[in-house]
Each structure stands twice: as C-alpha cells, then as structure tokens.
Amino acid sequence: MKKQNFVSLLLGVIGGVLFGLGMCMCLLEEWNAFRPGLILGCAGLLVLLILLIVHRKMAGKPAVVINGKILGKVLFAALGALTLGVGMCMVMVWEGLLVPGVLVGLVGILLLLCLIPLCKGLH
C-alpha cells in the first residue's frame, strides 16, 4: 500500500468516526450531549478537510479551486443528502410518517444518483 493511500485511509476513518459520533451525540436526546457532540462533529469535519488538503498535496495536484460549477455540485450533493436524512428521520424518529418518509428518502437517493452523470458527464 502506498503511503498516500494509507494516510488517506487513516485520516478518512478518523474523520468519519469523529463526525458520525458527534452527530449521534447531537441528535440522540437520550445521550444529553449536544454541545460535546457539536464539538466532536466539527473536529471530524476539520480532519476530513485536512484529509483533502494532504491527499491533494501528496498526489502532486494543485489546491482545490472553487468556482460556480463545483459549488453547484456541492450544493446539489448537500440537497440530496439532506433530503435522504429527512426521509430517514421521518421513518425512524417521527411517529406515523413511515410511508411519506420512505418516499422522501427515495427522492434523496434519486438526487444523489443524479450526481453521477452530473459529475462524470454522459459519455
């Protein structure tokens, strides 16, 4: 395994676990840990941002350039992820919204699937 891949794997796992655990701490009322969860989730996002910078540097690629096209794709991805998350909340947290939650979740999945041709293009 190349050093670049190992570092990416390590930072990705650490960032993903920190972010996921932080979000669980924020969203599960039984844990009573909103503020520490918010801090842990932000730390996970910071590690994932560091991963992006380190990975591009080790690959010899230039820094990320943010333009309107990339920003549109990121916003579209966020919309799809939020729609999927709302659908999951409707199914698992809010009572009596099983069928509408599944439908909203499917819309979120379709939005995320639309990212593939949007990012890769149709060949």
Description:
It is built from 4 helices and no strands. The protein is mainly alpha-helical and 123 residues long.
Number of strands: 0
Q: Treating each run of at least 4 consecutive H or I residues as one helix, how many helices?
A: 4
Helix content: over 70%
Low-confidence stretches: none
Major beta-sheet overview: none
Structural class: mainly alpha
**What is the number of independent domains?**
2
Q: Any idea what the shape is? A: flat
Mean pLDDT across the residues is 88
The rounded distance between the terminal residues' Cα atoms is 32 Å
- Give the strand content: under 5%
Query: How large is the radius of gyration?
Result: 17 Å
Quaternary structure annotation: single chain
Q: Could you spell the SSE succession in H and E letters?
A: HHHH
